């Protein structure tokens, strides 16, 4: 029995890191502790099965086969569904409340998205000069006075390019 135990210890020292890698490759998303638990459980069970009467020819192969079966058991286990009504440990609130946006108003969100789509379509229809003025003032933060100086065009021309063209395009929508 002592010889078998020494053989077991030497095989474990050599194969344990490989067994852990084997488990992690087969079970993606598993934590390191869960992988270690699977391997430790197999090692414990195999060690308990070893007796003087029951000699294992190829202990490493037996360990890999046992780990493979333990992985199958892991897949077969019924997973308890996560309840959204269960209370969160940190906040004391139901977990489902984390998923809800209590500050959002669905109707206003839809209106904003529809307006953004209409605005995008309107901007696409603008001439390049009109779109450039709108982008410079609304997106880049330039004032019409700054653009007038930068581009060498009168402020009135810049104003008329964006306001009239965009208003007309939005009304057509």
TrEMBL record:
<dbReference type="InterPro" id="IPR013325">
    <property type="entry name" value="RNA_pol_sigma_r2"/>
</dbReference>
<dbReference type="InterPro" id="IPR014284">
    <property type="entry name" value="RNA_pol_sigma-70_dom"/>
</dbReference>
<keyword id="KW-0805">Transcription regulation</keyword>
<feature type="domain" description="RNA polymerase sigma-70 region 2">
    <location>
        <begin position="12"/>
        <end position="79"/>
    </location>
</feature>
<dbReference type="GO" id="GO:0006352">
    <property type="term" value="P:DNA-templated transcription initiation"/>
</dbReference>
<dbReference type="InterPro" id="IPR007627">
    <property type="entry name" value="RNA_pol_sigma70_r2"/>
</dbReference>
<keyword id="KW-0731">Sigma factor</keyword>
<keyword id="KW-0238">DNA-binding</keyword>
<dbReference type="GO" id="GO:0016987">
    <property type="term" value="F:sigma factor activity"/>
</dbReference>
<keyword id="KW-0804">Transcription</keyword>
<protein>
    <submittedName>
        <fullName>Sigma70-ECF: RNA polymerase sigma factor, sigma-70 family</fullName>
    </submittedName>
</protein>
<dbReference type="Pfam" id="PF04542">
    <property type="entry name" value="Sigma70_r2"/>
</dbReference>
<dbReference type="InterPro" id="IPR036388">
    <property type="entry name" value="WH-like_DNA-bd_sf"/>
</dbReference>
<dbReference type="GO" id="GO:0003677">
    <property type="term" value="F:DNA binding"/>
</dbReference>
<dbReference type="InterPro" id="IPR013324">
    <property type="entry name" value="RNA_pol_sigma_r3/r4-like"/>
</dbReference>
<dbReference type="InterPro" id="IPR039425">
    <property type="entry name" value="RNA_pol_sigma-70-like"/>
</dbReference>
<comment type="similarity">
    <text>Belongs to the sigma-70 factor family. ECF subfamily.</text>
</comment>
């Amino acid at each position: 029995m002592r010889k078998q135990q020494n053989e077991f210890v030497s095989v474990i020292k050599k194969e344990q890191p490989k067994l852990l890698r084997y488990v992690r490759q087969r079970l993606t998303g598993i934590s390191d502790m869960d992988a270690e638990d699977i391997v430790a459980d197999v090692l414990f069970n195999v060690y308990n099965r070893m007796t003087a009467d029951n000699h294992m020819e190829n202990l490493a192969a037996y360990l890999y086969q046992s780990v493979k079966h333990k992985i199958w058991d892991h897949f077969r286990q019924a997973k308890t569904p996560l309840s959204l009504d269960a209370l969160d440990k940190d906040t004391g609130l139901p977990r489902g409340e984390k998923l809800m946006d209590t500050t959002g108003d669905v109707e206003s969100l839809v209106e904003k998205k529809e307006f953004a789509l209409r605005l995008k379509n309107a901007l696409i229809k603008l001439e390049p000069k009109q779109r450039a003025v709108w982008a410079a003032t609304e997106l880049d933060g330039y004032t019409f006075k700054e653009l007038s100086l930068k581009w060498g065009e009168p402020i009135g021309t810049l104003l008329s390019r964006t306001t009239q063209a965009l208003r007309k395009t939005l009304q057509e929508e």
